[in-house]
Amino acid sequence: MIVLLATLFGEFFLVGLLSFGGGLATIPFLQNIAVRRAWFTLTELADMIAVAESTPGPIGINMASYAGFRAGGIPGVAAATLGIVTPSIIVILIIARALTKFRENELVSGAFSALRPASCALIAAVGVGLIRASLFTPAFDLKAAILLLVLIPATLKIKAHPLVFIAVAAAVGVVLKM
Amino acid sequence: MREVLMLALIYARVGVTTFGGGYAMLPMLSRELVEKRAWLTEAEFADMIVVGQCTPGIIGLNMATYAGYKRAGVPGGIAATLGLVLPSAVIISLIAALLQGFAEYAVVRHAFAGVRVAVCALIIKTIASLWRSAVKAPEAGAVFAVVFLLAVFTKLHPVVLALASAAFGICFTKLRARAK
Asked: Looking at the structure, do residues A51 and A116 belong to the same domain, yes or no?
């Protein structure tokens, strides 16, 4: 058991360390784990992605929790999630400390002046992908398009908690059988 | 100490209310940290995203550690990150234990088709507010346009685009300083 938990921690530590970006960036690594270890099959990985996407929480964490549970029950969940979290904590604490120190440095502020618009553009590109996935997959979905056209001005104008819009959209999805 | 617990709590709430990846967290985080508490300015919020994107690790976790550290040092960074993780771990364990085939229920599928659309709208709102703090000068607009097109139409990794932008920013600042 101890060996299993240590291996789970180690494998997910590597996933956390090596994947840049959102939780979906972890999928290639998980695929690799599925092939090498008997923790879950590739089909179960597909289920995992579906579950991770349809439950609250960052996808990467959900995937780690799910894989951990399949491999080692509740202790497995703890080992896998702590494994995936630890690299972020270590790396970011070091970087945050360095950044606070070098904030006034000309090179750092120069880099950030271009990184900010770049970061905004990367999110916009993710937005394009999200719109493609929710409106055009598999075919153009008129109901989803109308809902989006209503929601965009609503989110910009109404100062409600994001969850309000999510709950309304979920209800609309169920009622209209989207 | 109170602030550290507060951070864990805020991030646990963000964890429960986020559907679909680190970027979907942004609207919730901006609401909690910028609008409601003013713990971060719009510019600091943009910095947090930059750091989350171009460092190894999952974006959502990186952003949690960064914002937590900014507010309450190392304990804050750890508390925010673990707070974010805890609800996921609990919910997924319950689902994995009790609900086989959860994602195939018709109600779940329909609800999530709706939720995905809401996430699109919320992301657009986030982009609009980031734009205001990130894109002020013409050269920033150029960086935005180039990175956006490359990210949508090529398979270049975001980290490559981020590093190239950072290099451009450094060169541009140097050249402008020399021109003066």
From this structure: no
Closest CA to B88 of A50, A148, A66, A164: A66
Which tens digits make up the pLDDT trace of A134-151? Answer: 888 778 889 999 999 999
Mean pLDDT for the stretch of residues B150-170: 88
**Number of domains within chain B:** 2
Name the CA radius of gyration of chain A, rounded.
20
Residue B174: which domain range?
136-180
On whether both B86 and B17 belong to a single domain, the answer is yes
In this structure, of A8-12, A16-20, A59-63, B122-126, the range with the lowest mean pLDDT score is A16-20
> Do A126 and A138 belong together in one domain?
yes
User: pLDDT tens-digit profile of B29-88?
Assistant: 888 899 898 888 888 888 888 888 878 888 888 899 999 999 999 999 999 999 999 998
Beta bridge partners of A56: B19
**B23 vs A95: CB contact, 8 Å cut-off?**
no
- Residues in chain A closer than 8 A to B59 (CB atoms): 21-23, 58
**Average pLDDT rounded to a whole number, residues A20-34:** 76
Based on the fold, state whether residues B87 and B166 are members of the same structural domain. Answer: no
Mean predicted lDDT score pLDDT of chain B: 88
CB proximity A6 to B under 8 Å: no
**Which of chain B's residues have a Cβ under 8 Å away from the Cβ of A109?**
173
Dist. CA B66–CA A83, nearest whole Å: 18
Expressed as residue numbers, the domain containing A138 is 106-175
Backbone φ, ψ for residue A57 (5° rounding): 110, 155
Q: Is B86 found in the same domain as B144?
A: no
| φ/ψ bin of B155: left (φ > 0), alpha (ψ from -120 to 50), beta (otherwise) | alpha
Identify all chain B residues contacting A96, using CB atoms and an 8 Å cutoff. 51, 65-66, 69-70, 77
A178 and B110 within 8 Å at the Cβ level: the answer is yes
* pLDDT recorded at residue B26: 87
Fill in the amino acid letter for A137.
T
Judge whether A86 is closer than 8 Å to chain B, CB to CB.
Answer: no
Asked if the Cβ–Cβ distance from B88 to A81 is below 8 Å, we say yes
Contact between A31 and A65 (Cβ < 8 Å): no
pLDDT of residue B147: 94
